[in-house]
Amino acid sequence: MSISMTLMFLSVLLGSNLGDVSALVSINVVVAALLGRIFLKEALRWVHLVSVAASLLGALLISRPEALFGKSAQESIEGGSLAWLGYVFGPIAGFFDACSLICARKCQNSSEWHVAFAYYGQSCILLILLMFVPLGLPLGQLKSVAAVMAAPWEAIGWLALLTAVDIPNMVLFASGAKILPAAISATTDAATRIVCGYLASVLLFDGRMDELRWAGSGLMLASVLVMAAVREQPEEKPHVEMTEQTTPGCEENGSGAVEIMGDDGNDDAISSIGSVASFAASEFIDLEPSQRRRPFRDRFMEQLPQLRSRKTAARQTDEAKSSSIPSPQPLGATAPMASI
C-alpha cells in the first residue's frame, strides 16, 4: 500500500492529470480478476466481466486519458515533460493496491491498527527518500523542503491534521479488506476514489462535470452494485470420508496421537493448493469465502479426531477378542492324556 501511495504521489508531481492517475490505478480490478484465470485455471463468470468492463469504461469516461481523447490547451500548458511517467506508474500502483487487499485478507488475526501503522511507517521511509531524489520534477517541488524549514510548526500542524484524518481512514480500509472478498474491495475502492475525487473537484475547486464524466460516474457505481450483489457459490465436491483404508499414510504413535506419514514432496504438493497466488485468485472467483473449496490438508486435519477415535475403538476391540480366546496349553500338559 505504501508503494502504491508513493507512486501515485510521484505521478501527480510529475505533472500527470489526477483523474488519469486515479483511473489507471483502477487496474487493480483487472489484475485481481485475471489472477483467478491464471492461477486457478477457471473461466471468469459473466458478472465479473460485466463489473470489470463497467469499471474500466467508467474510468475512461471520467478521466479521459490523453492517449484516447486528446489533450486540451490548458493541460498542454500545465503538463510537465515527464508527465508520461505517470501513465506508467499508475498501473504499477494499482497492482500493489490489489496486493495490499490480498495481504489484508490473509492477515485475519492481525489488528487493523497494526496494518495502519505499518503502512505509515513504510510510507514515511519512502517519502523521505523521495525528497532527495532529483527526478527533474516540474514546478520546483524540491523547494518545498525550504518552505518546511521556514515554517516548521505550521508544517507539523498540517502533518498532524492529515495523520489524524488518514489513520482512521486506513483502519477502516483494512477492516473492510479483511471482511469483504478482495473483488468487492477492489471495485469499491476504485469507484469511490474516482467518483469522490471528481465530486470534491466540483464542490471545492469549481470543477466542471460534463456528460461523459456523469456517465462514467454512473458506470463506476453500477460496477460496485453488480459486484456487491453477486453471491455465487462454487460447486460442492463430493465428500470423501477419511478411513483407515483411504489414509494409509497415517500412523498412531504411542501417546495415541495420529501422525502424518508421507513421502518427500507430498507436503509441498498439498501446501501449494493453499498458496498465496491461489488464495488471491480465489478471492475473485468464489465470492463466498466461507464456501470456498478448502485444501486437502485442512479437511484432513478436521478428520483427525474421528480417525483417532476409530483407531482407538479398533484397538480396544482387538484386545477384547484376544482376551476371550483361551491361551494354548503347553506341549507337556498333553503328555498324560497321550499316555492314557
Automatic annotation (TrEMBL):
Coiled coil spans: none
UniProt source species: Polarella glacialis (Dinoflagellate)
Protein name: EamA domain-containing protein
Cleavable signal peptide: 1-23
Superkingdom as given in the UniProt entry: Eukaryota
A Gene Ontology cellular-component term: membrane
Bilayer-crossing regions: 12-36, 43-62, 82-104, 116-139, 145-167
Entry keywords, A to Z: Membrane, Signal, Transmembrane, Transmembrane helix
Region of interest: Disordered: 294-340
